[in-house]
Amino acid sequence: MRKIIILICISLLINGCSIISSKEVAKVSFDNISTSSLIDWKEVELDLIKEQKVFFWTKLDINYKNELQLEYKIQIICNSDTLGYISLNALEKEITVGELKSFIGNETNWSFTGYMNFFKIKRDGHYKFRILLVSNLNNTLKLNKAIFILKV
């Protein structure tokens, strides 16, 4: 039983280290939130091989009042075939680096770098990631910095 627990701990440690130590291969900055009247797609193209994991990170520096929903919408294309779409909550992260968050009344100031999720490559190919940043209708949102980062 003890050996099994040790193996599980080692496995978790190795997987956690691969997320953190992965290499940044692309990043895109957002100046605007996409709306129905303003669609601001950003694109990243990468040649990837089967079994690689693409880790999705975000770097945010935002100010807002009241409640906020902030999401990345990602379209994944391989060799001109759309594989699907992923939605990632930009405010929910599994690993956080350098987080600063303050509240003054109902105003929130928040900055961090965070790991959100990953996508496992199922076949070799030329991949295109099309990314949107969307939000609920919060007119108080100020984007000081919004960067979507891909690591492998």
Based on the coordinates given, report the CATH architecture.
Answer: Sandwich
Helicity level: 10-25%
Strands ordered across the widest β-sheet: 1-9-3-7-6
Q: Which segments are poorly predicted (pLDDT under 50) over 5 or more consecutive residues?
A: 6-16
Tell me the radius of gyration: 17 Å
CATH topology: Jelly Rolls
Biggest beta-sheet profile: 5 strands, antiparallel
Quickly give the structural class: mainly beta
The tally of helices reads 1
**Approximate shape:** globular
Strand content: over 45%
Mean pLDDT across the residues is 90
Number of domains: 1
Summarize the structure.
The protein has 152 residues and is mainly beta. 13% of the residues lie in helices and 59% in strands.
Chart the SSEs and their pairings.
Blueprint: H1 2-21, E1 24-29, E2 42-48, E3 53-65, E4 70-78, E5 81-89, E6 95-104, E7 107-120, E8 125-135, E9 142-151
Antiparallel strand pairs: 1-9, 2-8, 3-7, 3-9, 4-5, 4-8, 6-7
